[in-house]
Amino acid sequence: MLKKILKRTLKRTPLLIVIAIVIVAVFGCHSAPVALSSHQSAHGFKLYGNFTKSQQETLDELVSILPTTMINAITFIAKVDFDEHFDAGEGGHCWPIGRICIRGYFITDAGTLWHEIGHAYCFHIGLKGLVLGLKWEETAGEVYKGSEDWTNYYPRDGLLTGYGRIAWYEDMAEFVSEFYKNITNRESAFDSFNEKTWEDGRYKAKMDLLLKYGFITEADYQKFWSTRK
Ligand SMILES: [Zn+2]
């Protein structure tokens, strides 16, 4: 009897497997990310995710501070509300071709947004971005450690923040966001600068690279120096 049941079950195994796959496919994938709804930003790129009207307005306003060349580097900005999408401590990230994801609760955070758009623009300028990388590393010297450093007080070593300690491209993106925070009267890493800090020529040299490669306009560059404390 047992043998018979076993034989019958084995015979039906392929069918049972198919049924199991169908059940999993229909009912079992609750953890899969749902497709994000999309709409258009005032600047023409796509926005994905659940934006409130005020969040979208703030984001559009923050983006409009940047030069058009940088805005054109954005393909989309996604407001991603599930934490599993990000590494621990990551507020956002940018994939090549200007695809930016930002954690829901950072979506209107100026610093996070400008930092990621800095990456997007660097990807956008292609070969020039790679040349910038070489020049930036040459300017910075042997300061990058591949990880963040929050054990020291910043600015130091030509870096603005402990996050910039990771690699040249994070340092560069930190310069972009801190620069725009400064010229829009937000708190920035430049607030704790003094004459001694400026004696380290790497800070100005990096700002000059941002100007040369189009991350900042001549007018904003002048504005920065005219308000320097
Ligand atoms: Zn970054």
Précis, in short:
The chain is α/β, with parallel strands linked by helices and 229 residues long. The protein has helices spanning 2-27, 53-64, 68-71, 110-124, 127-140, 168-183, 195-198, 202-212, 218-226; strands spanning 38-40, 46-48, 76-80, 92-95, 99-103.
Shape: globular
Task: Give the helix/strand class.
Answer: alpha/beta
Query: Spans of 5+ residues with little confidence (pLDDT < 50)?
Result: 15-34
Q: Beta-strand percentage? A: 5-15%
Q: Helix amount, in percent? A: 40-55%
Separate helix tally: 9
| Distinct compounds present | zinc ion
Q: What is the average per-residue confidence, as pLDDT, rounded to a whole number?
A: 88
How are the SSEs ordered, and which strands pair?
Layout: H1 2-27, E1 38-40, E2 46-48, H2 53-64, H3 68-71, E3 76-80, E4 92-95, E5 99-103, H4 110-124, H5 127-140, H6 168-183, H7 195-198, H8 202-212, H9 218-226
Parallel strand pairs: 2-3, 3-5
Antiparallel strand pairs: 1-2, 4-5
Helix pairs in contact: 4-6, 5-8
The structure holds zinc ion (ZN).
The site of zinc ion has 4 residues, from helix 4 and helix 6.
